[in-house]
Amino acid sequence: MAEHRSMQRAALLDAARSLLSEGGTEALTFPALAERTGLARSSVYEYFRSRAAVVEELCEADFPLWAAEVASVMERTDSPEGKVEAYVRQQLSLVGDRRHRAVVAISASELDAGAREKIRAAHGGLVAMIVEALGEMGHAQPRLAAMLLQGVVDAAVRRIELGAAEDPTAITDAAVAMALRGVRG
Q: Does residue 57 have a pLDDT over 90?
C-alpha cells in the first residue's frame, strides 16, 4: 500500500512538471493532474491539499538535483574563475530540462509564503555554492557578488526561455563574459 501511494505521488509530481513546463502555473490544476495520471480528481486531494503543496514538494525534489548538477560541474575545475564559468554555464545548460522549466514556471507564480520560502532557501543554497570561489578571487563582498551573479544567470534564463532572437549559446557566452568581468571588477 505504501509503495502504491509512493508511486502515485511520483506520478502526480511528474505530471505536475509536465503541466508546468508546457503551460506554466495556470496549467497546474487538480483536474489536469487527475487527467494526466488517470486518478479521480478527489484522489489528487488525498496526496496534496493545494497547488502550493504540489509546488513545495516539486521544489524539495528538484532543486537539490539541479544544485547537485551545478556543484558537480564546478568541482571539475580548480580555478575560481573556472568555477564561476561552470556555475553560469551549467545553470544555463539546464534551461531546456523539464525540471528547470517547472521551477521557472513556479518561480513566476503567485505562491503562498511557505512555497516562496522554500524557493528562496533553495536559491540561497545555489548562491552559496559560488561564494567561496568569489572570495578566492579576492572579492570584498563575495556573498553580495554571488547574489548579483545569480541575477545575471536569472536574466539569461529568462532571455533563453522567451525564445529571444539570440541563439542560446550566444546568450550563455555573453552571461559568462559579463559574470567574469563583473566579479573581477
A: no
Q: Contact at 8 Å (CB) between 56 and 115?
A: yes
Binned at pLDDT 50, 70 and 90, residue 158 comes out as confident
Of the chain, the end-to-end C-alpha distance in Å amounts to 58
Q: What percent of the chain has pLDDT over 70?
A: 87
pLDDT of residue 36: 94
Alpha carbon distance 99, 129 (integer Å): 20
